User: Fold these one by one.
Assistant:
Number 1:
Amino acid sequence: MWLRPIPEPDARVPGHMDVLLPRRSHQPPALNWREALFNPLTLTLVFAALIASVIGTAWAQDGTPGQASIPSVLLKWTPLLAQGFGYNILISVLSMAVGTLLGVLLGILQVSPVFVIRKFAWLVTQFFRNAPWLVLLFYAILLIPFQVTIFGVTMPFPGWLKAVIGLSLPVMAYMSEYVRGAIQSVPSGQWESAESLGFSRGQTMRMVILPQTVKRILPNWMNLYAVLTMATPLVSIIGVDDIMGYTRSALSAEGRPDVLIPMYLYVLCWFFIYCYPISLMTSRLERRYSVKL
Amino acid sequence: METVETFFQWLRQSYGIKITIGYDAWDRAQFLAGLWTTVKLSVLSIIFSLIVGVIGAFAQGSKYLILRAPIGIFVTFFRNTPPLVQLYFFFFALGSVLRVTTETGGSAPMVSAFSWAVISLSLFAGALNTEIFRSGIEAVPKSTLEASESLGFTRFQTYLYVVLPLALRISLPSLGTNLVNLVKTTSLAYAIAVPELLYAAAQIWSEQLNVREMMTVLLLTYILLVAVLVWILGRWEKALRIPGYGV
């Protein structure tokens, strides 16, 4: 007994007793977003990436006089790359919006009481979830007509719009699975009490169940957005303008083999700087929400 | 074989559905070669990504920062950049530097496109595997480690004989998801002209102009490949199950 000093009674802890110390939860303190984004680790990584691109330079340089230095070459093409990256972001945001909307609907259909609808929704989900993204993109690009006629008006169907559709298909399928899992994880008591209060099935879904699933889906949803953003360079393969296409144009315009490594590293850094904060926030949210379940 | 070919011929003549790989020997050979390349690419990438994951997770648990930090940077960087850009970086950027002079005086790439695809995909999936194994290792109970320590195991022996077998079983479900994704990602090799499934299919549909049919065959083939992998992983998971160990 004398080995360990008896702690002073702690007035701040309710229910404190001398014989039984209260159980303290060991939750890590939640960080605010500023600390989450700008912590030393993040900054170190970003700088390491940037420095690596400069070192890669010196290593690959032939030392021919009269040539522009590599950082200045990168700087020269930055506006073009930024424009391309803007297209990537635009495509990712649009695909995410379309995919989320369709995915929530499909996910609700997956828990439908009607057997046929349920099975059909499951089949669609599995099909698009297990097909490679690139193949789905090809599907969208080659099989959607390049112009559509609605009410006698012929409208062109541009490639980037098809790319948005092609990328939203897998997003829809993943989203559908998340929604199904989240709906099924809501305790059945919620359904029963809503029913006893006279809610119809649709009302229960809309007002009781879906609001509760948001919290569970959010980390997965953000992760999915990061994955989608990292899939957007695929559109360059099928000829839609984006940062990869512009990078290759810039490289062929320069025609210098020593720019290759720094340029690709530079593009990798662009994506890293955009995606890393998202994945940090995701893991933060995951950790915070996982305690309460 | 004869009857199958007759069937596909009949399908083409009666309905205009041109599944050329059904009756054209050349197309079929091309398609099967593509399928074989995809299988080889997948198997090699899976094996190497598992090796990268095991080594990475071991290094992440090290007490030396000098070992932990590079692995941490590698994992974070590869997880948060697009696999396609990584592939381009390896193939176009590093591939242009790593060249050897042939006997005839020309310059030839030291590493083939196929090998770059394997390297790039293994590193990408390996970074994710590292994270998966690490969380599996963290889930191994401390008392098990203490028990193995008290039996006189070194840190490496503990890792090899105690931690890894348990961690593997714990991380098997998420590992499965990642490996399925890896098989799907092998289609990226199309971009650097590795003659895999998508590439072979694209060759066929640009020659025969049967995009719709080939596309459907292609999608179904990929889904079949994934289904086979999921089946194997399911069997593996069942075989490795420890009775009484709650996972």
Number 2:
Amino acid sequence: MSGARSGVPILRLGDVLVTGLLNELDDKAAIAFTEELTERIVGDRARAVLIDISRLEIIDSFVARTLMELTTTARLLGARVIVAGMRPAVAITLVELGLELSGVETTLNAEQGMMALGWQPASRPPKGGPVVPLR
Amino acid sequence: MNTSESEARLRVSTALREQGEKVADRWVQLQSEQAILETGITEAELNEEADSLVEALLAGLETDIPVQDVVTTHPGLRRAVTDLSMRRARGGATPTATSPTILALKEALLEAVQSDTRDVTALYHAALFINRLLDTAGAMSFEIYVEGREEIIRRQSRQLLEVSTPVVRIWDRVLAVPLIGTLDTTRTQVVMENLLEAIERDEAQVAIIDITGVPTVDTAVAHHLMQTVNAVRLMGADCVISGIRPPIAQIIAQLGIDLSAILTRATLADALAAAIPLLTDQPAHQSPFADVR
């Protein structure tokens, strides 16, 4: 079940696949990761993929392209891709390189990514419950 | 070094040693006579400055550095001239007022030598010597003056850069950046960095860039705006641009700049109104214990 080839763990939470990229992703590992994730989307019938990149201090053009291709591939397979937690320095570098990851959904952190997918924190009252108290 | 020069050098340094006080006073007097100084340098400062320069000049002449290099190589003298020019530059004196300061010293020095000897040849050589000595000082003071002014300009533009890009939190998870002045590459960089870091820190979901204070928008400025918007989007936040004045809107339309991918509003208030519905209904950073309290 675990990602043997790319070394990137992919977890399944219901119909959502959760994964995170670390700094040492080289080109080979990136390709392996794409293949693995694509197979898992089909195999697990996932409807969404959340990729946390808050540990990445650098994204090169190859990884950026991989993310964009992954989004397109996943969409073809009926799944949404959310890239969460991009660091400011990474965002600036990507924009300067002209890689705007068009079509890729982004969120501030993994939590908001999950909330965008309809997940609710367990400690929080369900919708329609009491409003957050004013301070 | 030929004899007439070394003689002249000896004569000048003797004059300086014996009448240093007088030279300094005369110099200050000449400066005030020529009304060189309209700036805020007081007479006391002027006196002090004159004393230290005359002293340094004497120290410089007593070494065996050749006359044309004394001012630039003798550390004490160099520092005295540097201090003088820097003070003028910071005080806002014009360059035409700064170089006569040095040149007035020539006159004071020559008068001192004159009181010592009446020999025409000796005086001629002394004058020649003083000229060679202080012309380099004049040139150097001018150079330092320009450097001092440039330093002020650099510092001010740095300050302007820091001052002009505040990131304000105007609502829970809504940040605003009021941009003032032209948006060039450096500014964009600073704005982007500040904004993205603030987004990360405050877990903001919407960033409003207000361009009311941007005098004009051309293709370069638009490009920089787009870059910022894209970077904000990559961070997972939404971006609204506000404060587009009618003439600016016309320019953007005429230039055919495509801002259709960006949410734009006329005023900051409208932008805030547009931003609030974009927020997800629960604050993401809400502590799980908030309900207990």
